[in-house]
Design brief:
Blueprint: H1 11-32, H2 37-45, H3 57-80, H4 96-103, H5 111-114, H6 120-126, H7 135-148, H8 151-154, H9 156-162, H10 166-172, H11 179-189, E1 194-199, H12 206-214, E2 225-230, H13 233-250, E3 255-260, H14 267-275, E4 280-285, H15 297-308, H16 311-319, H17 331-339, E5 348-354, H18 364-373, E6 374-382, E7 395-402, H19 409-412, E8 417-423, H20 427-435, H21 437-440, E9 448-453, H22 454-459, H23 465-468, H24 471-479, E10 484-486, E11 491-495, H25 502-505, E12 506-508, E13 517-521, E14 528-532, H26 535-543, E15 553-555, H27 557-560, E16 561-563, H28 568-571, E17 577-578, E18 584-587, E19 589-591, E20 609-611, H29 624-635, H30 648-651, E21 669-672, E22 674-675, E23 682-683, E24 689-690, E25 694-699, H31 707-718, H32 721-730, E26 740-741, H33 744-748, E27 751-753, H34 761-772, H35 786-799, H36 803-824
């Protein structure tokens, strides 16, 4: 008789697997809950459950919030469970409901699930017909929890924003707002005449909830209606339930209207507001930050057409015929433009939005629109911490009031002043709110305040400088503006290669490799041999019909090198090939990354790649080696994406394998797109090619200055602290790890005081040679390399700047750079 083996119960092992997920969510929620006393009791006892009164309403209510999070953890754990042996023959492990049936068994010896404060009852409500949190469940959770504990203490929408809602930030551009930011905007926007409060991108309703909580602080007897518009059905449900419950608990007679609707399809709702006789409408808004390239094309076209067809935009176009809504506009810009259609004079707006519009070219039209349609009251930014830590971009608080119909831009520009404030962190917002701007700013270390006339803002496209730039530097630029020119007056600036297929065009120089091939040189004829760097790539090539016999590609020398008979100095430091007839061939060296550049002078020593340069003619007229390589580029099937020839950038060329002519122009000076803690301009004497992460600077031929002298001057001047400050002020702080993004046109706009070479030529030549021997220096390291001292000498000799002024620039810049980099690393409490 066959012995019957008792089947092992895998459930305890599953619980062992799932428990870390539950505890990690508990800790995250604890970290985000601040010092709320009820929360503290709950979290202290989730691990030590003795002596806890299970009937305590406050504890029970907070544990109800935990039900949503634990449910989410169970789902995550089930998806991530990879140990097949745990499943056995228990098919019920494929169902979250069947797992929960085991959790509810009273005979299970699992302390966590038998804790007095374990949210069993609420979890039962979560296990409805669908394997995710249902609308019905959320409604039950909100209404029942809010009836047993004051809503302001529980803050369920804030917990939802922090935990469950985080994926929405990436997918839909939704960003959730810290309470301190909401409170400050409320204080600035709500006035005694406010009758309606509207949030057109309401999310979970935290803006409006907090506004309702703050109403008792101010005598606002006129407020009769709160309106929320939210596209997401889950968030809309949370918002609606929470608003209604809150008003019920507080016995407030305010009407709450929540619309689950796309903001750009809510014209009928908004039009009623404009037609009704009412007091002031206050808009409190944190619109989606979705970048334009992430908006689906059909949706983007619909939004752009809807905004462009509004009367407020049509009127604006008649006044400014060159106006158009830029295709680079992010979603938040469309929100601002569209809501403007439905507002009356004296209506007020309080927004928190990315700061990029203040300094980028596509932001110019928004600046002009705001100046024309609104009185801009306040723009607040932070120096050391982000206002919203959950997003990479830096944000600003913006408060506005709609201008009267009689108030023209021409009149207001000479009378209205815009206040710019730069503080350190969100804690300073509380000081501003409690003491007022004038009293609070002296209490805030390194705070900046600037009151700027609208007329000046019309002439200055980069508004960020008013809070970032040291006052003395702005005064210097203002006092010398009649003597200033721009870099574009002396030189052109262009981007490097955008090849569209780097793995095809960029190959390793002899002895190096790219993604697929190891390169070597055939010394007989100077051709480049490309061999697969491993067997896996070789097999893939063979499967697709390549390298069946010879196992390598051969690139003839004229496609990866160029001939040069004059560059004798270059011969000493470069890999090159010489024909039997003493013809010199030099590789098409490529600078792929700024990391390859160490000193001010570009050399080939640290470079990895060369560029394949193919003439613009039919492949039938090319040599057999390069023909076969082109064939590979046309048919090779990458693991992801199209063959190189079918990629958009390549397909738009007449010959996809021929790079545009503009990339071959001589650029003796190079600079970089992304700035960290140094601002280098490199000398490129041998005309190396460079990738799109670098920019090339070429002196204009029409300038009546010797090209060599002009190159020397520009190289030295551009590496001075005077230019470094300008770059720091003009770039955008919206890159990860505090990087600064600088575009071509921003380099073109660098201000250059007019100069004379008379009597300075030998000094410049000597300083130029000394500088080439040094390296670009960092502004967050304590040492002061000789390059700074040498370049300071340039400012003294050419522009007669004093040592005191130069040292002041260095210290100011060091402080700005350190703050920018530190700010990118901050991550402070979300809820407070």
């Amino acid at each position: 008789m066959k012995k019957q083996i008792k089947e092992r119960d895998p459930f305890p092992e599953f619980i062992k697997h799932i428990t870390p997920y539950i505890y990690s969510i508990i800790r995250k929620l604890k970290d985000s809950s601040g010092t709320n006393s009820e929360s503290e009791v709950f979290f202290e006892n989730i691990f030590l459950s003795e002596n806890v009164n299970a009937t305590d309403q406050k504890i029970n209510s907070i544990s109800t919030v935990m039900a949503v999070l634990i449910y989410d953890c169970l789902c995550i754990g089930l998806k991530t469970l990879k140990r097949v042996e745990l499943l056995g023959e228990h098919s019920y492990f494929n169902s979250i409901h069947m797992i929960f049936d085991r959790i509810t068994e009273k005979n299970l010896d699992i302390p966590l699930f038998h804790s007095p404060i374990f949210p069993l009852h609420s979890l039962i409500e979560l296990f409805v017909s669908k394997p995710y949190i249902s609308n019905e469940c959320l409604k039950f959770l909100l209404e029942n929890t809010s009836n047993s504990i004051n809503y302001s203490q529980m803050k369920f929408p804030y917990y939802y924003d922090r935990s469950i809602g985080q994926n929405k930030i990436k997918n839909q551009g939704q960003v959730f707002t810290p309470i301190s930011v909401i409170d400050f905007i409320f204080d600035q926007v709500i006035v005694p005449e406010t009758e309606i409060i509207l949030d057109p991108a309401a999310g979970t309703g935290v803006f409006l909830l907090r506004a309702l909580e703050n109403l008792p602080k101010i005598d606002l007897s006129e407020v009769i209606k709160v309106i929320a518009i939210e596209k997401d059905p889950i968030l809309s449900l949370i918002c609606e339930s929470a608003l209604k419950v809150f008003c019920k608990l507080q016995s407030q007679s305010i009407e709450c209207q929540v619309y689950n609707q796309d903001f750009f399809q809510s014209a009928s709702i908004l039009s009623e507001l404009r037609s009704e006789k009412h007091g002031v409408i206050a808009i409190l808004m944190n619109p989606p930050y979705t970048r334009q390239e992430l908006i689906p094309i059909r949706e983007k076209d619909f939004i752009r057409n809807r905004v462009s067809s509004t009367s407020v935009i049509s009127d604006f176009k008649r006044k400014y015929t060159s106006f158009r809504v830029s295709g680079q506009s992010s979603l938040y810009i469309y929100f601002i433009l569209y809501i403007s259609e439905f507002l009356n004079p004296q209506d007020r707006l309080g927004l928190i939005i990315p700061n990029s519009w203040m300094d980028v070219r596509y932001g110019l039209m928004l600046q002009l629109f705001l100046l024309d349609h609104y009185n801009i009251e306040l723009i607040v930014s932070t120096r050391l911490e982000k206002l919203i830590p959950s997003v990479e971009v830096n944000t600003v608080i913006l408060t506005l009031e709609v201008k009267s119909h009689m108030q023209s831009l021409e009149v207001s520009s000479s009378s209205h002043e815009v206040k710019f404030i730069r503080i350190n962190s969100k804690a300073d917002l509380k000081l501003l709110a409690n003491y007022g701007i004038k009293k609070a700013l002296p209490m805030i270390k390194d705070s900046v305040f600037a009151s700027v006339m609208e007329s000046k803002l019309l002439l200055e496209p980069k508004w960020g400088i008013f809070v970032k730039a040291p006052r003395y530097f702005l005064d210097y630029l203002d006092n010398t503006k009649d003597n200033m020119k721009f870099l574009r007056d002396y030189a052109s600036v262009r981007r490097g290669f955008t090849s569209g297929a780097n793995d095809f065009f960029y190959v390793g120089k002899p002895g190096r490799m790219n993604r697929f091939f190891v390169s070597s040189i055939d010394l007989k004829d100077g051709s480049l041999i490309l061999k697969p760097q491993n067997n896996e790539i070789l097999h893939r090539l063979q499967e697709q019909g390549f390298l069946l016999e010879e196992e390598s590609f051969t690139i003839e020398r004229e496609y990866w090198m160029h001939s040069d008979t004059n560059n004798h100095e270059f011969q000493k430091e470069s890999i090159l090939y010489t024909t039997p007839y003493n013809e010199i061939w030099i590789p098409n060296y490529l600078i792929k990354s700024p990391k390859e550049l160490e000193g001010f002078k570009v050399t080939s020593e640290n470079l990895t790649y060369v560029v394949i340069i193919i003439p613009k003619k039919s492949s039938l007229k090319l040599k057999p080696g390069i023909r076969k390589y082109i064939k590979w580029g046309e048919t090779w099937r990458p693991i992801k994406g199209n063959p190189y020839a079918l990629r958009t950038t390549c397909a738009n060329r007449k010959f996809w394998y021929s790079l545009p002519d503009e990339y071959y122009h001589f650029c003796p000076i190079l600079c970089i797109m992304t700035i960290n803690d140094r601002y280098p301009f490199f000398y490129n004497p041998h005309n190396y090619y460079f990738d799109a992460r670098l920019y090339g600077i070429t002196p204009l031929s029409e300038i009546k200055i010797n090209e060599e002298d002009l190159t020397t001057f520009l190289f030295l001047f551009l590496n001075t602290v005077f230019v470094s400050i300008q770059i720091e002020l003009s770039g955008r702080e919206n890159l990860g790890e505090g990087g600064l993004d600088v575009k071509v046109y921003e380099y073109q706009d660098i201000k250059i005081p007019q100069f004379k070479f008379l009597g300075k030529k030998s000094f410049l030549a000597s300083l130029f040679q000394k500088t080439l021997l040094s390296k670009p220096s960092s502004y967050i390291k304590s040492e002061q390399p000789s390059s700074k001292q040498e370049l300071d000498q340039f400012l003294r000799e050419i522009y007669s700047l004093s040592d005191e002024k130069i040292e002041k620039m260095h210290k100011s810049l060091q402080k700005i750079v350190q703050a920018r980099i530190d700010k990118a690393k901050t991550d402070f409490s979300y809820i407070s």
